Amino acid sequence: MGGRVTRVFRTFNVENRASREISREKPKPAPRHPSTRMHPLHDHPEINEGIYRKDDRLLTFLKDVYVESRDPPMQVKAGGDERLPCKVEEKRLTKLGRFGELDVKKVSKGRISLVEALTILNNHKLNPQIWTAEKIAVEYSLELKEVKSLLEFFIPFVVQEFPKETKKAI
């Protein structure tokens, strides 16, 4: 409904408004600055001649400059199947968890997988006398300082079940 009303006002007297706009005088452009009216080279023809004239002295300088570039000869090695040297990391087999194919099989020395980290934390929590930081460091090829900080700052979750009597009290 609103579209019809606005269309009526838009199209009202369109032809008269258009002819009035066309017949109106065009605005005069702003006056230009005097420096843009004439190019400075038009006043001095000797400058134009100097620009387009060849200078033999400069051409001889240009001809004297000669750059020669040579690439060293390419040497093709006979052993094309050799690979680039790369950093070789020592790997160790992980203590496999219960996820089988999803578990990580090899880990770099000095690192542990997520399953191993949770196992270490759980074993230390259950038997701290047996699973000391020194034993964990030797067994998993870790640094003692890192194992101590792991055991100090990471604690596995604890699930606590409340007896039925205390549930009602809560």
Layout: helices, strands, pairs:
Layout: H1 2-11, H2 14-23, H3 34-37, H4 40-43, H5 45-52, H6 56-64, E1 91-93, E2 106-108, H7 114-126, H8 133-139, H9 144-153, H10 164-169
Antiparallel strand pairs: 1-2
Helix pairs in contact: 8-9
Brief characterization of the structure:
The protein is mainly alpha-helical. It is built from ten helices and two strands.
List key phrases describing it.
170 residues; two-stranded antiparallel sheet; 2 strands; NADH dehydrogenase [ubiquinone] 1 alpha subcomplex assembly factor 4; NDUFAF4
Account of the 3D structure:
The chain is mainly alpha-helical and 170 residues long. Among the domains are: 37-63, no CATH class; 91-153. The chain has helices spanning 2-11, 14-23, 34-37, 40-43, 45-52, 56-64, 114-126, 133-139, 144-153, 164-169; strands spanning 91-93, 106-108. A two-stranded antiparallel ribbon has the order 1-2. The two termini are 64 Å apart. The mean pLDDT is 79.
Distance between the termini: 64 Å
The chain-level structural class is mainly alpha
Identify the strand order in the major beta sheet.
Answer: 1-2
Q: In angstroms, what is the radius of gyration?
A: 44 Å
Strand fraction equals under 5%
Work out the helicity level: 40-55%
Shape: flat
How many DSSP-defined strands?
Answer: 2
N-to-C order of helices and strands: HHHHHHEEHHHH
> Which stretches are low in confidence, meaning pLDDT under 50 for 5 or more residues running?
none
Biggest sheet, open or closed, and with what strands and sense? 2 strands, antiparallel
Mean pLDDT, to the nearest integer, reads 79
Helix tally equals 10
